[in-house]
Amino acid sequence: MNQKPYYSLNTYLKSTYGEKIYKAALNAGLSCPNRDGTLGRGGCIFCSRGGSGDFAAQISPEEFNAGFEAARRRLSGKYGGMKFIAYFQAYTNTYGPLSYLEAIYERALLEENVAGISIATRPDCLPDEVLALLAALKRRFPQKFIWIELGLQTVNERTASFIRRGYPLPCFESAVSSLQELSIPVIAHLILGLPGENREDTLNAVSYLNALPVWGVKLQLLHILRGTDLEKLYLERPEEICPLSQKEDYLDLLIDAIEHLRPDMVIHRVTGDAPKSLLIAPKWSGDKRGVLNSLHGKMKERSAFQGRLYVPSD
Predict the structure, then answer these.
(1) 60-78, pLDDT tens digit by residue?
(2) Which residues are 88's β-sheet partners?
(3) Most Cβ neighbours (<10 Å): which of 15, 22, 152, 186?
């Protein structure tokens, strides 16, 4: 069933549910401790004003149907199946009043054509009461899944400080451990091409994830977006801020990461989308289909595949 040289999300979903399932991106109107003054005001330096959810449809518990339908329409009619993932994408989706979080999660899980929910958040925004809520929802909706997506981005603490991530690495490990106890799958977000990082940093991050009970990973190219603090730095020092300005450099690093990645880890993303109206650099990343075709062609040429260079930790 898997025609790609890596364990893609599409392959997992088809083998599990027997059909293609699409993500409906949602914006629940939440904020982030890196924006509301708790940790900072500007957010992470790469994050757009849309909180990394520029394509997400606005929803609320009271008007969920209209928002969810808008999210489905944004898939441009390309879906043929009847199942969707309600993807809480914009900002930090466990950061809000508990009653509101319960209402939006419950509303999504009650949708007949929703196979499950995926919640993008920060590892420092999973207090005990939120974990208890997730556990209760798992019991209430046993036929549907709940995934948590955690923004790791890097394992280099120097880089984490530069991008204003706002939490230390042990916080990520603690969150993964807490979610594992609840049997809630974790998807880690990892950015390739952060300023000052090299191949060794990327492979260190891959090795770090390999050693943890992380179920899935999103490998994301660093985008320079209009209106971000990263844009200001890029205009001053373009080569330093955007080291993967050439597509071939990104593909080489990406293939290296995939080959070192644990073979059972589901790869949810290998590049990423950015609104063309906001994308400053690298411009080649705007052709997502072309990037994917180039990746698959290059991996075929090299006989490369996920896990080929994976070495289990002792």
Answers:
(1) 888 888 888 888 877 755 5
(2) 26, 119
(3) 152
